[in-house]
Structure formats: structure tokens, C-alpha cells
């Protein structure tokens, strides 16, 4: 994990491209936190769904093809993440926020992590991660580390696009 944080810090000093920052962050989440799968999902043009752009980990290709999250009125947790630009999580010790019946069927019962993906102050999607394959719980410490990586990746992207 520390190595990926260092790489992200070095990327911030250069002019990284979007994919380079995202891949470094996602690899840090997989390897450093022991997550089973993670992804970046981008908002659709009408801002009513999140669609996978980059997926890593267990069943990554299947996730990329089928893991589309609808942002209907019941998806309070995802909307909160996007609109308030705050990371959220579901796990054994987390506060439960409604996600809606349709999303509940797609998301693992043992927990998951989401954080806004921002370029400067514009939210363009989310970072997503879980332990669906192994069924291991998500903890507060996992959430804190996940949030740290997402924030650093967002900083890298903002710095990269600021000079564009």
C-alpha cells in the first residue's frame, strides 16, 4: 500500500494521464487492503447511472460488462457520495444508508466502499471496492485507507488537469 501511495505522490509531480492515476490507485486498493475487486465507475451523460470504466480483481471482465449502478431515488447512499463528495461504506460497523432494492441485489451483503472521483471540484464518478468473492467484512480501518487512496488519486487528477 505504501508503495502505491508513493507512486501516486510522484505522479502528482508529473503530468499523469487519467488511466495511469486510476490504475495505480486501484492496484493499491487491491494489493494494500486485500480487497477482492475494485473499479472506477463514471457517470453517464444524463447522470442517472454509473458505468464501469476500469475494473480490477476477481471477475473484473464480468464486472466491467454487467456492474451498472442506477441512480434512482432510492439510491441515497450513492447520491450522497456524488452530491456531497463524501466517501461512504457499508460493513459490519458502519451506519446503514439506503441503497434501494435494485442496487441491494447487486451489492455484496458483507459490505463495500465508495468514494467520489473528482477532477478539481467536478464529480465524474466513483471509486468502488468490495470483498464479494471471499465474503470477508469491511472495517472502519479499510474505509479510512480506501478514502486516503481515493483522496490522493483525486488530488493527482486535479493537478494533472489544472495545467491543461
UniProtKB/TrEMBL annotation:
Residue ranges the record marks as coiled coil: none
Domain of life: Bacteria
InterPro entries linked: GAF, GAF-like_dom_sf
Annotated TM spans: none
Stored SUPFAM superfamilies: GAF domain-like
Residue intervals of the GAF domain: 24-155
Protein name as it appears in the record: GAF domain-containing protein
Native organism: Shewanella fodinae
Amino acid at each position: 500500500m505504501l508503495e502505491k501511495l508513493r507512486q501516486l505522490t510522484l505522479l502528482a509531480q508529473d503530468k499523469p494521464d487519467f488511466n495511469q492515476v486510476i490504475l495505480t490507485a486501484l492496484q493499491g486498493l487491491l494489493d494494500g487492503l486485500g480487497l477482492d475487486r475494485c473499479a472506477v465507475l463514471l457517470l453517464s451523460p444524463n447522470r442517472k447511472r454509473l458505468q464501469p470504466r476500469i475494473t480490477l480483481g476477481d471477475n473484473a471482465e464480468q464486472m466491467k460488462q454487467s456492474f451498472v449502478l442506477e441512480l434512482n431515488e432510492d439510491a441515497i447512499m450513492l447520491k450522497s457520495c456524488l452530491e456531497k463528495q463524501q466517501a461512504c461504506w457499508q460493513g459490519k460497523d458502519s451506519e446503514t444508508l439506503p441503497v434501494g432494492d435494485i442496487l441491494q441485489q447487486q451489492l455484496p451483503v458483507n459490505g463495500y466502499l465508495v468514494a467520489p472521483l473528482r477532477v478539481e471540484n467536478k464529480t465524474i464518478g466513483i471509486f468502488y471496492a468490495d470483498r464479494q468473492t471471499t465474503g470477508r467484512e469491511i472495517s472502519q480501518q479499510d474505509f479510512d485507507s480506501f478514502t486516503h487512496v481515493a483522496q490522493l488519486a483525486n488530488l493527482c487528477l486535479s493537478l494533472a488537469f489544472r495545467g491543461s
